[in-house]
Amino acid sequence: MKSAKVLVALFLYGCYMVRECLQHDNPEPVKTALLQTWAEKLYFELWNCGEYITNRKSLQSKYNKEAKLEGRNGHILVANISSVIKSMMDKKQQSLKRILESVEQVAVSAHNDAPPGDEYKVRNAKPNKATPHTNILLNDLKENSHFYHTPVNATYSSVHIPTYVYDRASDVIKALKWSENLDVAFRKNYEIDPRLSWQYFGSTTGFMRQFPAMEWPDKPDNTEDLYDCRMRPWYVEAAASPKDILILVDNSGSMMGQSKIIARHVINTLLDTLSVNDYVNVLVFSNVTNEVVPCFKNLLVQATLANIRELKLGVENIADPNNISDFSIALTMAFETLEMYRERNMGAMCNQAIMLVTDGVPENFYELFKSHNWKNGTMGMPVRVFTYLIGREVPEIRDMKWMACANHGYFVHLSTVEEVREQVVHYLPVMARPLVLHQSHHPVIWTPLYADVTDPKMTDYLWEKEECQQQYHDTISYKETKDQFFYPKNKAKRDRDRKKKELNQNLNVNRQKKHNLITSLAMPAFDKKTEMNITVRRLINDNYWVWETRETKVAHLLGVVGTDVPEADLREAMSPHILGVNNYAFIVTNNGFIVTHPDLRPVFGDILKPNYNSIDVTEVELVDSDNIARVFDRSILTLRDYIINQTTGDREITVKYHYDDMRRATTAERHYYYSIVEGTPFTVVVALQEKHFGYRVKIPDRFQNLNTTRSSLLDYFKDDEWRIHPDWLYCRYAYDDGDDTSFKTPEDELRHFLKRIAKTDNTWNKWPPPRFYSESYDCDKDLMLSLIYDANMTKGIFTEAKNDTEKKKNPAAVLMSLLPRTEFEKRFGVTLAFVATHSGLTRWMDYEDKPKTPLNSDDHENQQPHFIDENVYSIEEVWYRRAVEYNMVNDESYVYSVPFENENIKSTLVTASQAVFVTSKENKKKGAAAVVGYQFRHSALQELFLNITKQCYSETGCTPAKDTCQSIERDCYILDNNGYIIASENVMDTGLFFGNVRGPIMKMMVKEKIYNNITIFDYQGVCFKRENEDDSNSSSFLYTPIHHLKQLIGWLIGRVLWLAAHSNFQWMMSQAQAIFEDVPDYQEDEESVYSADTLANFKIEGEKALKYVRINRTRPKSCDRVVNLYTLTSKIPEKVEHKSMCARPYELRKIMNTNLILLVVNGRCPETTKAENFDTEPKEVDYEEFNNSLNCHKAFYSLPRRRPKTACIRTHPDEHEIYDKMCGKGTITTVTPITLSIVFFLCLIL
Predict the structure, then answer these.
(1) Among candidates 372, 357, 346, which has minimal Cα distance to 412?
(2) Could you tell me the pLDDT band of residue 1056, with boundaries at 50, 70 and 90?
(3) What is the sign of the dihedral through the CA atoms of 709, 714, 719 and 721?
(4) Non-local CB neighbours of 1022 within 8 Å, separated by 6+ positions
(5) Any bridge partners for residue 547, and if so which?
(6) Which CATH architecture group holds 241-431+1188-1245?
(7) 667: number of Cβ within 10 Å
């Protein structure tokens, strides 16, 4: 009997399923009236809750009562910023000249001094070198905020000596001794300009003297210190005028083993001594000559970090040595390439040189040099030749040395790897000889943006180290979990985590910066002694040698002096509070590269990107066009030309831009104003959205004078629930040299100055003062007054909501008055309210204790950081920018958002924000004053969404079983204006892009112009190329076709059961209940999903398992990425008529006064269209024309640049008088023990 009931039940259910399938041909339409009712109810709840919690109307009224508007004039703004930066740079330049004068004076006075004895000690910056017999310990170091919170001593300097430089060598120790006298100039500069950053002198002997004294930072991974000032941008650019370099490397059969290794290090070191104003290529030759990077054929490429890296990879992949070298072909090709660049005014347009790396030459090639380099005589030769002889046992060196000496170059003999770095840099003083001989001309150079002490070559090494840590983690995880490691659920989570990590690394979402980005200015220092006596051997009458003393011309470069300008100082000089939200300024160099820009993303994770300091202006300012990648619109190219040529003017361009971790995008018309910073290669550009953000709030007159309110200033900041923008200058002491001038937080600093202002009756102090003293301080009067005004406006803004009688008219206020606080919190889930103002002030009020979960609780990992821990940047925060921007669409709208792809659903918070504008009564112009908002639990929104959409109203003609969102016939979603799911029936969809969940539906909405597609190119991307394309791991062995079939069958069975559980045939299921009586409750156990046979496939042991645990090794590379982002149209199109209901299987309604839509999808309509990869994840752009090489594409389609305005000094008539024996020598190297310890490390990273 029991089995008969079961059969009947299954038969009836089968009939039901057949009927359901047939109904797909004629599904019921979505009830638009019901949808409208749901949208209205959602609006009512959200709107009234927001209005009550934020007290927006009250704040709006306060601002409109007395605040005024002031127009932003782009021409005035850019002129002011340029003037401020010029004044800053002039001070740095004056300081630099004082150091330069001191260097040249003390060097002359020390010429006849004997080297100091063994008792001489130096203040060595390396802690591990602070040995009592040679070094003085650095004492009394105090943390100083002006120097990145580094402990320093501003009474003396310290020195850094490269690991491979012997610090007791006579020339080194003598220069160390006389350079101690520079401390007087260093201290004087710091007294005159307390905003001065690091001051330093880099000696040609290798050491760098730096002020103030500091201990060199330890390497966290115990790697050797590879810093050498002679290879830093400021030294390289100042030591010689820009240069074109062609490196010729011999690859004949004799260049095997150690010779090949040494040659590679020579080339890599030469490449490290180049800067962005230099041009270079590397040619490898034997019986034929080719470029090491094939796509760089017949080119000299700009020496950017990306191009240098590409050349190094090419050198790394040079084929095994073979054949006999044809030097004539290689040298001829080099000379012809350089001649072409001279005649066409391309490349560096100044110095030119050939670097020949070989283990020997068959002859001196006199005729070849005569025809190619001495056309105008040896006095006017255009190309210098530097020769590097490789190997211990080499043939006659005379020809190699003659080639260098006859062509104003330098000869070096290298027999070991450890001497390479020290000997290769000798070419720089030779290139500098014309500069030294001119004596009076000391060009000032400005570097592009770079990281202060970070070696860019470490990128690959640090990434390899990070992958090793990931490998270690996976291996340990496997050993702990065994078979479970290979479960699809666990593997999917690892893949998601790695994908998310890669995305975050590209976006640089962490504001905490590990690298100090700077630009530097530097000047070469010359030895004033132009002649010296030397003793040489001379052959007399072809019979015997005699020694004689002669006077000869010399031109010695002492080194380079320099100082830094932190990128943060440049951003501060741009007065971002005056520019306002969604407006900004940036700086561009003569090469078109960005120095500072809000969209500059120089790191991935904590590692510098391969091309971090050569981002072009066209790569951050994206024109709103349909062009493919790197086909730049004429409008931006024209603007770029004006900028790099340092003109003054303005242009309007419609652009598109991304924000919120490159998940959202929009378009806008921007007005660009540009102006030169005189005396520098920089141009300042101000970008304004004048149509919407052309006005700023001006405080009322009564706040312009604080005499009447000084006693109450601190009253505005009584509580602790407020923060100020940490990067803005409100008030600051000139010196940070004691407890009275150091503060733990910006808020402590502000309180200090508020007290100081309250105590004085005089006007604001003048800046800069006639003379600086320990308590000199600077205040931005405009910003301080705005902050105090905003503090007055926002004080008690949230507590007023409970006492404001006018708000009793608000339905939410009525509900609040009737419900206890705990019940109100439970209903709306409100956790926090906040307000942020245009002056950088952020206030908040908690609605619940924080954190409620103890730190040792199991749920601690699910706890999100407190709002204020990550939201102190006011106008720069995403919720602030979105609220102000969306005000242009609807000035009453709240903007809602949830975290993207948040796995901790239980703790997910919804953030809602709305802008407060001051509106002019005369012309209706508006200016953003503040943004108010609140956070509430997503679970409350989820419950509200489900409760409303399950309701059925008779007047709408709905049927609960078919028309509500509880029905299997309807799938309901709340989407934001960029297509991300705010709420759905499946809570796990929260934060996902709708296209990932219902691709065909999203595709249809884009097609019908409900959402607009905005294509964004990320020209700062980093992609990860697998080192071994044949590598494989666990991703491929688990899912054979049989496994896919098994999972498909399991899914179908589950779907049938799900349909049954949600159908109206409860009686039928009750009859079949016996079938399931012995089935236990479903548990989220991975093993329960798979059969025993499937689980057996996960049991992998031994070496085979470790093979699948092994990760794919990759190498980071610069790449372009493309992503399609979406934005809701301002006016949703009316319903489109279709032939059948399923031709448009959805309906939607805007939720009034929000950025949300309510979307209902007809579940009966099959999704017949495909929308593969319909997501918002960036994809790499392939450049098939150049074998998918971005650097090749950029080299072939290089953008124009302007040569630096510094004079090109490449020759001097007296240079031929310099004794030819000073053009090189065979090296006799004293190798320090510590040098030998880094040879293996150098082999790994170079």
Answers:
(1) 357
(2) very low
(3) positive
(4) 505, 506, 604, 609, 610, 1116, 1117, 1118, 1119
(5) 537
(6) 3-Layer(aba) Sandwich (3.40)
(7) 15
Show Cβ contacts of residue 929 under 8 Å, excluding neighbours closer than 6 positions.
63, 67, 697, 790, 793, 837, 838, 916, 917, 918
Quick one: which of 497, 477, 490, 488 has its CA closest to 903? 497
Question: Average model confidence (pLDDT) for the chain?
Answer: 82
Amino acid making up residue 1073: Q
**How many alpha carbons lie under 13 Å from residue 959 in its C-beta half-sphere?**
8
- Cα gap 881→874, rounded to integer Å: 9
1018-1051: buried (b, 16+ CB within 10 Å) or exposed (e) per residue? bbbbbbbeeeeeeeeebeeebeeeebeeeeeeee
Classify 1066 as helix, strand or coil.
Answer: helix
Please state which of the ranges 196-205, 260-269, 1091-1100 shows the lowest mean pLDDT: 1091-1100
* Residue 500 to residue 502: CA distance in whole angstroms: 5
d(CA 806, CA 550): 100
Give me 463's structure tokens.
């990434």
Q: Is 335 left (phi over 0), alpha (psi -120 to 50) or beta?
A: alpha
E-strand stretches of 293-396: 301-302, 351-358, 384-390
Helix H or strand E encompassing 462? helix 458-481
1005, with CB counted inside 10 A (0-12, 13-18, 19+), is buried
Instruction: Output the pLDDT for position 500.
Output: 65
Indicate if the pLDDT at residue 1073 is higher than 50: no
Per-domain residue ranges of the chain:
83-227+518-526+556-563, 241-431+1188-1245, 706-794
Tell me the pLDDT tens digit for each residue of 842-887. 999 998 765 534 434 444 445 668 999 999 999 999 999 999 999 9
Question: Does 649 have pLDDT greater than 90?
Answer: yes
Query: What's the Cα-to-Cα distance from 768 to each of 91, 106, 772, rounded to whole Å?
Result: 12, 31, 8
Q: Which helix (H) or strand (E) holds 982?
A: strand 981-984
Assess contact for 897 and 879: CB atoms under 8 A: yes
Considering the entire predicted model, what is its pTM?
A: 0.87
Please state at what angle helix 258-272 crosses helix 305-316, rounded to 10 degrees: 170
* Beta-carbon contacts of residue 414 (< 8 Å; ≥ 6 apart): 262, 266, 388, 389, 390, 420, 423, 1227
Q: Where does 415-453 show beta strands of DSSP type E?
A: 445-446, 450-451
Say how far apart CA 532 and CA 1223 lie, in whole Å: 16
DSSP 8-state code for residue 1149: E
Query: In sequence order, which ranges of 892-1027 are alpha helices (DSSP H)?
Result: 938-949, 960-963, 994-997, 999-1007
